[in-house]
Amino acid sequence: MTLEASIVILDNTEYARNGDHLPSRYEAQAETIQAIINAKQQMNMENAVGILTMGGPQVEVLITPSADPDAILGCLFGVKLRGEKAHFLNALQIAQLGLKHRKNKNMRQRIIVFVASPIVEDEKTLERVAKQLKKNNVSVDIVNLCQSGVNQIEKLDKFIQTVNSGDSSYFLNVQSGITSLTETLFNSPILNRFLSGSNANQASSVGNVPINPTQAGGANPFAEYGGIDPSEDPELAQAMKLSLEEEKRIQEQLEREKNQQQQQQQAPSQPAQENATSLAQQNLNTSANNPSFVNETMQDENQGLLANKDDFDELTEEELMNQAILASQQENPFEAQQGAENKEPRKEQTKKEDDESVQANLMQDEKFVEDLLNLVGKGDEKKDDKKENEKK
């Protein structure tokens, strides 16, 4: 994890009003500050960024190297464009002095310079300052936005070659008409040289600039460690690995639960149909074995249906079928009452017919008739004797 202190030098001369880099040269510079802060702090949260301006009568220090993004961005408000000459060498020397007094002496030193106006210094002076910066282990990146002549590009390129040590410095010449200066920086070694693929993507995303991952470092060899090189910070790399594995496990668990819920929602009708079929079969078996139980059950259910007419429409098809089966087996109370009324006169008529038949059979029996007559005669004799005794 690179620990670095950087100072960004902005060109706020009148040349920065030019609109060949949308919306203007100065605004294009200011928009890159957020991306630079994000890129540096993606490398290490302790990395600090300071800002200078080199337009106007003198160099102005907006903020010394700081790790507070809000403070860094806040100093950009109120910057005015003034002067036609950029104090290029003075700005470099003041930036070097600011890096020399950085809080953490273990931080590497870097200066990023945006050039939006012609450089008037001669090559010898530039070479002298470049050697001094190299001696103090200060790396310099130059972004040239001014296309005033080939001479300037050659001077700046030679300056970078002089100050360069171990490919730590870089010169970027931006052609006019570039839609996004920030994206151009991310596609150059200025911002992506110390970033792995995932970190470069993150820094670009926070800076609101999409970039091509292949241009920002290619495939990440430390993807399982969240882009952290285990050789530089093994504890952080292991923590990132465990965190990524835990997140993956949680996502898999949520996916399984989601699939189970979908399966349960798709097949709730099958158990309901099986329960309805089982209930109907049970009712049929009960009705066959115990008709009286069926009649009593039907009476209770019919009373319940009559009492809850409003709920009748809410019955399912299986429940309606069960009601119909049970109703067909119940005895009709009106037919039963009519049958009982017709049954009583039939009994009386049958009894009368039986009495008449018995009497007819007895009259045809001669012995029975003779005995009957003798009994009648004896009865008359007794009555006559009784009358004579009364007369006496």
TrEMBL record:
Residues 5-185 form the VWFA domain. Residues 341-354, 378-392 have a biased composition (Basic and acidic residues). It comes from Tetrahymena thermophila (strain SB210). This is Ubiquitin interaction motif protein. One of its GO terms (cellular component) is proteasome regulatory particle, base subcomplex. One of its GO terms (molecular function) is polyubiquitin modification-dependent protein binding. Residues 260-273 have a biased composition (Low complexity). Residues 206-217 have a biased composition (Polar residues). Residues 206-233, 252-278, 316-366, 373-392 are annotated as: Disordered. Belongs to the proteasome subunit S5A family. GO terms for biological process: proteasome-mediated ubiquitin-dependent protein catabolic process. Coiled coil: none annotated. Keywords: Proteasome. PANTHER family: 26S PROTEASOME NON-ATPASE REGULATORY SUBUNIT 4. SUPFAM superfamilies: vWA-like.
